[in-house]
C-alpha cells in the first residue's frame, strides 16, 4: 500500500520537518552535549602514565609536588615550572 496524502500541504509540511526541523533539533542536542563535556584540558598525564587533575595546588615547594600538578620539561635534569614562574629541578 502506497502512502498518498490528500493534499499538497501535507507533503510540504513533511518536507519542512525533514529538511529544517530535524537537523535543528540534532544541532541543539549536539550543542548541549558539547557544553556538558567539561574542561578536558584540566587533565594531564604524569611521568608514570597515569592521569592527574591539572590545577593549582595550595603550595608548591619542591620538584615532586610541581611534577604532580604541572608539566615536566624535557630537559636533563628534569625541570618543572609553575604558571607563576617558579622553577624546580629534579635532584634525584
How would you describe what is shown here?
This protein has 92 residues and is an alpha+beta fold. It folds into two domains: 7-37; 40-89, no CATH class. It has helices at 8-36, 63-69, and strands spanning 43-45, 51-53, 72-73, 79-81, 87-89. The strands form two sheets. Strands 3-4-5 form a three-stranded antiparallel β-sheet, with helices on one face. It has a two-stranded antiparallel sheet with strand order 1-2. The protein is rod-shaped and about 85 Å long. It starts with 7 loop residues before the first helix and ends with a strand. The mean pLDDT is 81. Keywords: Membrane, Transmembrane, Transmembrane helix.
The rounded Rg comes to 27 Å
Helical content class = 25-40%
Estimate the global geometry from the Cα principal axes: rod-shaped
| Total E-strand runs | 5
**Main sheet characteristics:** 3 strands, antiparallel
**Could you tell me how far the N terminus lies from the C terminus, measured between alpha carbons in angstroms?**
80 Å
- Taken in chain order, the helices and strands follow as HEEHEEE
Number of helices: 2
Number of domains: 2
Q: Mean pLDDT, rounded to whole units?
A: 81
Poorly predicted ranges: none
Identify the strand order in the major beta sheet.
3-4-5
What class, by secondary structure content?
alpha+beta
State which percent range the strand residues make up: 15-25%
Multimeric state of these chains?
single chain
Transmembrane segments: 9-33
Keywords: Membrane, Transmembrane, Transmembrane helix
